[in-house]
Design goal:
By secondary structure, the chain is mainly beta. It has one helix and seven strands, in the order H-E-E-E-E-E-E-E. Strand 3 and strand 4 form a beta hairpin. The longest helix has 10 residues. The chain is flat.
Length: 90
């Protein structure tokens, strides 16, 4: 999907206060999106390239994870699948 497709689909969710923070593009994907990050007042929301949503409460404790491949430690919050924010593309 392209950036405009994601922006339109997120707007149609009609969730008050839902904002897009970042759109990550595939390096050689011809303008294709691979991840979109956004938030509401209480949640961080992440969409994959198919529009499936994952979320985490903003007040959830930060955890340390080991990055696969590099073995480096990174900090973040655990995401859970959240079908309430799944996108429907026209």
């Amino acid at each position: 999907m392209r950036t405009g497709d994601f922006e339109k689909a997120i707007e149609t969710l009609c969730v008050h206060g839902l904002e897009i923070d970042e759109i990550k593009m595939k390096a050689n994907g011809g303008g294709q999106v691979w991840q979109v990050n956004g938030h509401t007042d209480t949640l961080t929301v992440v969409w994959d390239d198919s529009g499936r949503a994952y979320s985490t409460p903003k007040d959830q404790a930060v955890e340390t994870f080991i990055k696969m491949g590099s073995g480096k430690a990174v900090e973040g919050r655990r995401l859970k699948r959240d079908a309430e924010f799944d996108l429907k593309f026209e």
